[in-house]
Every structure is written in C-alpha cells, then in structure tokens.
Amino acid sequence: MSALSPNVVLEAIRPVIDPELNMSIVDLGLIRGIKVEEETGDVEVDLTLTSPMCPMAPEIIAKTREAVLGVEGANNCMVELVWSPPWDPRTDATEDCRAELGIWD
Question: If you compute the radius of gyration of the chain from its CA atoms, what whole number of angstroms results?
Fold first, then answer.
C-alpha cells in the first residue's frame, strides 16, 4: 500500500504557516480538499485564503506545494485556489485557532 493518501498529505501540510496569522493553514481551515492519484503520484490541493487580496498567497501556495512534494510517492502537486465557500474562521478554524483569533462561541 502506498504511503500517499489524503490524510498523509494533510499532515505534511500542517506545518505550513499563514505568515500573517502565524497559524497552520490546516488548523485555520484553509485546505478545502485533497485529491491523490496513487498510481501517478499526482496530488491536487484545493486551498482558500483568509482574503482574496492576501499578499502572502504566492508564499503560502509555494510552501504548500513544497510540503506535498516532500511526501513519499508524490511526484506532482497542483495547488488550486478556491473561493467558494468563502473562508469563515467561526466555522472553518479549529477551536484553538478561534481562541487565538479572539473568536468565542
């Protein structure tokens, strides 16, 4: 069985930090989906950003791609920006991230 799976890819992306918020893009809920083609090693990551005007977008995309390509079996990675649904920290971020952002239920 291949080591390449959506869960393995997600954990590889977890250390990628949003430089403005200093939090994991996974914990912020910015990863919308991961598709893995085990036979070819192709990985597609659907990623949203905290804002369509995010000045750090190129850095976040590059670091996400780099993290995925570090996974055994990943040969190619495409990071697609998606905007629907819009990011909402109240529903997308982990409880710890919401607390850091000052969002209390």
Answer: 14
For residue 55, what are its two tokens? Answer: 């000045």
The whole-model pTM stands at 0.92
Measure the CA–CA gap between 15 and 48, rounded to whole angstroms: 16
User: Rounded to an integer, what distance in angstroms lies between the CA atom of residue 78 and that of residue 64?
Assistant: 10
Quote the tokens at residue 14.
């977890």
Domains and CATH numbers, the chain: 6-92 (3.30.300.130)
CB atoms within 10 A of CB 87: 19
Per-residue model confidence as pLDDT tens digits over 51-99: 999 999 999 999 999 999 999 999 999 999 999 999 999 999 999 999 9
Contact 28, 18 (CB under 8 A): yes
